[in-house]
């Protein structure tokens, strides 16, 4: 566990990537954010303005913490990285991973901090070799970026990381790298748990996303209002049952009783939260629905498992996307 990470580069620095990059930077580590021009310009000019939950700065009217770190729009920044936080939208994973791969240093560690279960294998197809590894990472944090250069943290901020393949799970050297990675983040105030069954946990998070994201998006309501309706709670349970059936067919351990319990805990914990899909739809941006309910519907069809609820939610969000494509973007819903 004596491996150190000298330079972290965040690829796709939106709210989540900027938050974790800021946590590392405020602990004294070299961090570069690769993001959109307006966000980069604001960071270069004023530093990243971080509003942390649980203290005075958690109030947007209060004074935020200014975190100094580098920003760029150039993906070539990954040449300097031994640790990459890969945070792009799932729809961009293939293209960005392909472009990034030739520039990655040997033995670079790439953490996929993304929704869905299909991103880590896609990244690995492009960056495999020369000692490089892709680490599936489950993210538990509530953040938003109300304007360029500003990140608001609402709660949590912990990660679960683990091996992507059975070979890596059996490799003591890879296990040591993961422990070193966890220690690196923990020292920066980011709790990390290393799990040999991280892909099961990614499926568990996918299950929660499938139960909440599309419904919140279609109705443009927060989680608390969603679950106030018995009809919506029953719809969510039906979605969960379908996800569990597909996960089990994929060889994943996702017991139905535990899945339903985990889903039920989300709304009381975050009653005012709008899903990321709801925020994307409100802004007129493409959503990740193809990699959430859409992924479950596709895999269900391939495996011979009926997923009518996930299929319907996927189709309705796609319809809402197309209907809003030519409309002016609405203010962000946070």
Question: Can you describe this structure?
Answer:
There is one protein chain. The model is unreliable at 56-60 and 330-334 (pLDDT under 50). The protein is globular. The chain has two domains: 7-196, Rossmann fold (3-Layer(aba) Sandwich); 199-324, N-(1-d-carboxylethyl)-l-norvaline Dehydrogenase, domain 2, CATH 1.10.1040.10. Helix 7 packs antiparallel against helix 9, helix 7 crosses helix 13 and helix 12 packs across helix 13. By secondary structure, the chain is of the alpha/beta class. It starts with 6 loop residues before the first strand and ends in a 10-residue tail after the last helix. It has helices spanning 15-26, 37-46, 93-100, 119-127, 166-169, 172-186, 198-219, 223-227, 230-249, 256-269, 276-282, 293-303, 308-324; strands at 7-11, 30-34, 48-51, 65-67, 70-72, 83-86, 109-112, 133-147, 150-161, 192-194.
CATH superfamily of the largest domain: NAD(P)-binding Rossmann-like Domain
Derived from helix and strand composition plus strand pairing, the structural class reads alpha/beta
Secondary structure tally: strands: 10
Say what the CATH topology of the largest domain is.
Answer: Rossmann fold
Low-confidence stretches: 56-60, 330-334
User: What is the name of the CATH architecture of the largest domain?
Assistant: 3-Layer(aba) Sandwich
CATH class of the largest domain: Alpha Beta
Mean pLDDT: 93
Can you tell me the overall shape?
Answer: globular
Oligomer: single chain
Gyration radius from CA atoms, angstroms? 19 Å
Number of helices: 13
Elements, N to C (H/E): EHEHEEEEHEHEEHHEHHHHHHH
Domains counted in the coordinates: how many? 2
What is the straight-line distance between the termini? Answer: 40 Å
What share of residues are in beta strands? 15-25%
